[in-house]
Amino acid sequence: xxxxxxxxxxxxxxxxxxxxxxxxxxxxxxxxxxxxxxxxxxxxxxxxxxxxxxxxxxxxxxxxxxxxxxxxxxxxxxxxxxxxxxxxxxxxxxxxxxxxxxxxxxxxxxxxxxxxxxxxxxxxxxxxxxxxxxxxxxxxxxxxxxxxxxxxxxxxxxxxxxxxxxxxxxxxxxxxxxxxxxxxxxxxxxxxxxxxxx
Length: 198
Description:
globular, mainly alpha, Serine Threonine Protein Phosphatase 5, Tetratricopeptide repeat
C-alpha cells in the first residue's frame, strides 16, 4: 500500500503541465486598473473593473476584497453593472473580457444561470481560459450542481494542472459528494501548488 502511494505521488509530480502565467498584457492591464482606482478611490465602476481583472489574472483574494469594497461604496451599483456590460457586450461581442465582466454582473444580481451562460461564451471566444472553467465550476457548486462543478474543474485542469484554485474547487466538490479521499487529495494538491506560487 505504502509503495503504491509513493508511486502515485511520483507519477503526479511528473505529470505534464502548462503552468498558467500572467502575460505582459495582463500585467499592464492590472496596473492600469489599479491606477484608475488610486486616482478615484470612491468610483464603484473602476473598482468593479479592477476586481474582475483580478478574477482572470489569478488574484482571486484581491478580487473578492475589491468586490466587497464596490458594494460598500455603492450598494446599487450591482443593479447597474449588468446594464452597463450588456450594452458593452452588444457593441463588442467578441471581447471575452467584457463578457467576463457581464458574467460577474449577472452573478452579483443572483442570475447564476445567466452568469454561467456568459462564462461559456467566454470559452467560445477563448477555449483555454482556465478562469472561466473555474468560475463555472464555482457557480455550479454553489447551485448544488456538484457533478457539473467537478466536470468544469476537471476541464480546466486538462488545460493546466498547476492552477491551485481549480484543485481547491475540485476538492470542495468531492467533499460535497462525500468522496473524502479525492477531496483530501485535491486539497493537498491545492495547498502544495499554492505554496509553490500557483
